[in-house]
Amino acid sequence: MENVLSIFFSLSLFYVIITSRVKAYVSVLQVQGIILSILLIIPFIHNFSIYGIILPLTLLIVKVIAIPRYIKKIIRDLDIKRRIEPTIQQMILLPIVILTIIIIFMASSLLAKNTVVNVIPFASGFSSIVIGIYIIMFRKKLIIHVCGFLIMENGIFLFSTSVASELPMMIELGVLLDVFVVVFLMGITLNRISSTFKGFEVSHLGRLKD
Amino acid sequence: MLDFFIFILLPILSAGLCYSVKDIKKQYGISLIIAMLHLGLSLIVFLGFYKTDLPTFFSSDSLSKLFLLILSNVYFWVVLISYSYLQRPVMTKAEEAKKYYFLLLNFYLASNSAAILSNHFGMYWVATEATTLSVSPLIYFYRNEEALEAMWKYLFLVSVGIAFAFVGIMLLTLSAQGTPLEGEQLFFSNFITYSKQLNPIWLKASFIFIFVGLSTKIGVAPMHSGDVDATSNAPSPIAALMSGSLRLTALIGVMRIYQIISPTSSFQFARTILIIGGMLSLFFVFVYMFNVKNYKRMIAYSSVEHLGIITLGLGIGGLAFVGAMYHAIFNSITKIVLFLMAGNIHSKYKTREVTKVRSVINIMPKTGWLFMLAFLAISGIPPLGIFFSEIKIFEGILFSDKPYLLVLVMFFLLFIFINMGKSIFNMLYKNNENEKNDYHLEKFNLTHFVAISLLLLLTIIAVTAPDVLYQNIIKIAQDFGITI
User: Fold this and answer.
1) Residue ranges of the alpha helices (H) in B317-385?
2) Closest residue of B to A196, CA-based?
3) Per residue in A161-207, pLDDT tens?
């Protein structure tokens, strides 16, 4: 089950690379959030406890409802155009991404010979981290950078579930809260940027140089 | 529990109080009391009169005691001058920023204390991310375009960097497979106990991720750009806070993993990475100093230089390690003076460009002299603190297995000194030809008092070399497996 979900997670990465609409990024974030919450609920299906349900529920609220809604609101308020404006062609990025993911999967299956890791979630999580960085590097719009950062965060979450050893719930909740506040602050900053610079692309940020 | 209350809970409570109290003066009073309590308790804890009793996820050892004292010292002085700083005229837009100033400062204190005192990697991560969140709105204090861009870059770069550090933490759990730590919590102390059994490959990977991720926050090259932008565009007290304590909060995370790695076979690898980081920072600053345009940026780069020296000292080990710990103290104190004086100059000349600031020593003599003294202190002129720590680091390098590095370090530092001196003396002494001689006396204000006290403190610590400090630093070195 975990493996199936992780595969879906990786597929969402391919979609995010080929799509050229801003809204699609938000939907991908929602899908990833749902996958992660299901992953967290699975261990509690057979022995249900209220305590165990808190974290998946918070994750669902933060990653599927709160953050995507907030990003949609920013897109609406700032009247951001639909297209994402990449710096390189989609069709050049796609082979690079496929190659990266293949390398990551092969490398992790090699590593799994020495260490006990859940290969598919591990590799999907790691791919998501790398794809998140690609998105930040190869897209012009700042709102897409925020989405890239969140995709990276989701990857880290998946990655940490594959590495066993759970973090205590208080800390997991702290991590979620931190991520939420980061996105919130980034949103406020984006608002300011769009009103100060009359735009929201990386090219507007070039004042600070040595 | 009293210590936990004062170090972490009380600042959070007072942040809440600052939100409800609208009067800036009252907010200042509350924050100052909290800062004094924090400083007092951390001094008592440091001197060993009070044994800490912190709840799970937190603990204190010699390293966190020292860094906590540095934090509360920097914080206290910064809060002390904050009120007079807020009285200075600013753009009307920046008036709204004042409302949240003390709230965020209190939050900053709480999150930094939590990060320094944490005994758990997860807790450390959460607290460090919270420090970023507390400081980035403060960077945007002036509400101008540069500050906005700096805030965005800092927030984004550091968040991505810290996410990397989280991957490193996850890899650390992987390295614990097959040891008694498997499935256990990520406590520093447990990892240190079983460090020899950890899987070396994952441990190395973990070190790289944590070091690279946190170096966005420490400001070690080549990840220093966001940090330099932020420090140079933030208001002076915040810049002092960032240079003096925030960078050390990030450094403590690297030191924890370095402590875990030091008894293992991967130690040489980690050392090499730290040394490369330190040397690269010196090199970047060396190149930058040839073309200085913005004096605040110059001081921010000076922070990169000194954090580079500290990282280098950590990597070299031995006496250099001891020197690096002293350097952390002296650097934090000197940076407050430098940034406060730069702030005075900025509020007089309304520009950060070196070429537009002339004859400071005539127009504002007190600030000018203190700025020069602070510059001499930061360049390692005796008896002003940094000389003593740098000499220890140099000696450590000379008697280590890599003595040739000393030549490079000396070369870089010499040119940094010359070029920085050139810009600063031009600012201080060069006269504009068509300038009227309207020299009037500069009033002695609180920032001058703070600067003088700090320079005195710096000299006293350096000259008397208190035994309790020395013992504490030796104890830190012993924790890292270094015998002097």
Assistant:
1) 319-349, 360-363, 365-378
2) B145
3) 877 656 778 888 888 899 999 999 999 988 888 888 777 777 777 77
For residues B43 and B70, give the distance between their C-alpha atoms in angstroms, rounded to a whole number. Answer: 10
CA distance B223 to B153: 12
Interface test with A, best of B145, B287, B292 (most A CBs within 10 A): B145
Nearest to A208 among B149, B156, B288 (CB): B149
Pairwise CA distance, residues B42 & B221, whole Å: 31
B167·A164 Cβ contact <8 A: no
What pLDDT sits at residue A165? 59
Nearest-Cα distance to chain A for B36, in Å, is: 28
Q: Which residues pair with B239 in a beta bridge?
A: none
Residue of A nearest to B291 (CA): A210
Lookup result for tokens 């000349």: B349
Q: How does pLDDT run across B377-399, given as a tens digit for each residue?
A: 999 888 888 999 999 999 999 99
B416-432 as b/e: b if 16+ CB within 10 A: bbebbeebbebbbeeee
Predicted structure pTM score:
0.94
Total residues belonging to chain A: 210
Closest approach of A156 to chain B, Cα-based (Å): 7
A174 neighbourhood in chain B, CB within 8 Å:
122-123, 126
- Boundaries of every domain in chain A: 2-207
User: Under the phi-then-psi rule, with left for phi > 0, alpha for psi from -120 to 50, and beta for the rest, what region is B350?
Assistant: left
Measure B59 CA to nearest chain A CA, in Å: 16
The mean pLDDT value for A83-91 works out to 78
Write the pLDDT tens digit of every residue in B42-74.
999 999 898 888 888 898 899 999 999 999 999
Of B108, B59, B107, B88, whose CA–CA distance to B244 is shortest?
Answer: B108
3-state secondary structure of A58: helix
Choose the closest CB to B166 out of A145, A156, A208: A156
Among A136, A152, A174, beta carbon nearest to B126: A174
